[in-house]
Amino acid sequence: MDSGVSQRLRVFGLAAAHLKHEWVLTLCLVSALAAVLAPLLILMGLKEGTIETLRDRLVQDPVYREIRPAITRTFDKEWMEQLQSDERVAFLTTTILPASSMIHLVANGTDAELIDLVPTADDDPLLLENDGAIPQEGECVLSNEAARRLGVKVNESIVARVTRSRGGRYETVEQDLRVKAVLSSRAGSLARVYTPLEFVVDVESYKEGRGVAARGWAGQSSQPYMSFDGVLVLSQSMLDPVLRTGLVVNTGLLKADPMDSEAFASLTGLSLPDGWYPYNLSIPAGSVNYSSIEALKRKLRGREALLIPYVNDLILQLPEKELAIVGLSINTDWAEKLAWPALPWGQLSATALESTRLMQILLPGDDVSVGTSLMATFYGASPVTFPLKVVGAPSQVKRALVPIELIGMLRTARDRAVVYQAETDDLVLQRAGFRGFRLYARNIDDVPSLVAQLRGQGLEVVAAVDAIERIQVLDRGLTQLFWLIAVLGVVGASAVLIASLYAAVERERKDLGVLRLIGLARKDVFLFPVFQGALIAMLGVALAWGGYSLLSEVINRVFGNELSDGQAICRLPAGYPWLAMLATLTLAIMSSLIAAWKATLIEPAEAIREE
Amino acid sequence: MPLLLLQQVVKSRSHAGSSFQLVVPELSVSPGEFVAVVGESGCGKSTLLDLLALISKPDAADCYRLVFADSEQHDVADLWSRNDEYALASIRRQHLGYVLQTGGLLPYLNVRDNLLLPMRINRLPGGSKRVKEMAERMGVADCLNRLPESLSGGQRQRVAILRALSHSPRLVLADEPTAAVDKRRARLIVQDLRSLARDEGLSIIMVTHDLDLVHEVADRTYGFEVSQVSENETLSICSQEVL
């Protein structure tokens, strides 16, 4: 075994000596190989450098990684958290209703600009990757267009002015914001101001009429607002179609249908005395709010008519059983007129909403212990448990009866989380979840699958899937192009090596014959062209790498002016010289096999014959 | 016991419809002998040389034996019948030396490396010292670092002889080693070969067309008797000439 190795080393020495002796030919061959390899390395360098840099810029532009819902919908916290924990998601922030997100910004006493308010949070790539920084409380980041319109620069202060209309009056609060950064125009062409989510949420609350104690912004408490499925109109005279149509105009209601007393009874649990005509006013698949009822009330002024808002199928869970409840708030005059039980809470009111009035219930049946409290749970958007005081059990009552205002609030609790605060003995409306989100995938390649997943959940989203696919197609195309050129280069290099090594064997038939004559075996002679191919490959790669290094340096100096640190137009990763060496060696050895096979056919007799 | 013994060895070759057959009834070389093989061109010299150089397979052989020592005997006819190329190459490498017409030196190695090559291939130690001594003796010591192409014909041939001897073979085959030099130099070369062989105790077979050159130094001489058997058949019988 050892002798074989040393014999091979001997052959290697001879092959090297031969190349050295014919150094001009060797130089030509090495140059030819380098001439094929160097442009290939430059091309690879350009692909790795320029194209990758450009691709990174384009591909990693947050705009292409953004996903947002196409529709406004309420997203609950758990769903958001689950989405945020998906490993494909780099960043997720909730957003608010578009209508609530427009605020006035004032800089240096100039006119106010109406600008879109967008929440942000730590790690927001849209900000961080566009020369921005994450704003903290009291700070904001402006988009390029917003900064232009306002004429402000970084570190200057602006005033955010939030306006709402409440009870027919305009109210305004202001907050100073320091401009922490101005984004590059790549982040988008719209005028936008980015602030922490907390500020955005406070702005939304204020706009919706609620107060924000922490900022000293006044407003109403956060009791749930009332909503209903419809409203019944009881009239002692028939309402003709024209009048009925008049009732729905400008009230927000859509339909006004007559109904019979049976339908009335099944809806309210109360029997209707003769001589009263019920009508059902509603918004199909929509909710009726209190302002519609007030508008309706104004239209019916002067007419002997009673408004009874209703909500279908409200069930409370008591410790032992379920309890279907209906709501009714009328004064004693009406109760007498209709022979209905007198209600301790009186008539419908939008202002008398203290819990001592609302949390009352009349129960049907005989074994009712008046004066006790029931703990009732309502399963809406989230379960809410609150006490109800049993205030009576009148005989007319077939179903449990509570103030309609409570029913209206519970209906709201179907869609929005409501909690019962024992300290204030009040029902409190939780934040309405969030109405949208802004999501950035970790990588553009993750966007299509995320979009597919969200669409699979029935959520239509907006994402630059088409653009991503275009980029991916471009990327694939470029890669294919480079491989095509690489294949051409490989074919060229192989041709050069095969031809040269073959010609070399032909040239040295006699010398190889002498080697066979003095005792080298066929397998030793076989190695002669193989070693020569390998040597030429190594020299060729070394020369090509030298040429590449020189040329890439020139390219980077001449064309690389506008690149940032760490970027280069032409650059190959660190392992590439070895990869190129390995690939070329393999190629050279493959190419030498024909010549090697030819060498084994040389007979020692050829050395003796003098042709 | 002779170093080399051939009995009834036959080799035929045909070319362009005509065939040539060489028959060697008996050829033997003893250790230390200088044997000349003399003949005009076309008589079968080359065919015989290929047989002796172990690079051509005999068609038939009653006996073809190489005896280097009691313990090292080779039945060449048997090795050929088994086509044991490796064993044949190994004998060539260790025990045979070749002096070719124009030297057969490798043009890309200098004289020293050419001389060292057979020793290195055989992994023999002390090459450099031996090369130097031999080169001094043959008067080519100042050529050691030169390439063969820069040598004169006579120098080249002497280097070739040295290379054939450098690994101490038992049998040296010289194929017209003086073809490229003038008569005076040729005689000197033959003298050198003769004395080296004697000193080293090896046998030499020199093939030449020039009987004058060898008849004084050769221990024995073989010649060829060529006869035209038919229009396309030539027969050559190689046998010892009695001078």
TrEMBL record, chain A:
This is FtsX-like permease family protein. Residues 484-601 form the ABC3 transporter permease C-terminal domain. It is found in: Cell membrane. InterPro entries: ABC3_permease_C (IPR003838), Lipoprotein-release_system (IPR051447). GO terms for biological process: lipoprotein localization to outer membrane. Coiled coil: none annotated. Its main location: membrane. Keywords: Cell membrane, Membrane, Transmembrane, Transmembrane helix. It is a multi-pass membrane protein. It comes from the Bacteria. The chain crosses the membrane at residues 23-46, 481-505, 526-548, 576-597. One of its GO terms (cellular component) is plasma membrane protein complex. It holds the Pfam family FtsX. Belongs to the ABC-4 integral membrane protein family. LolC/E subfamily.
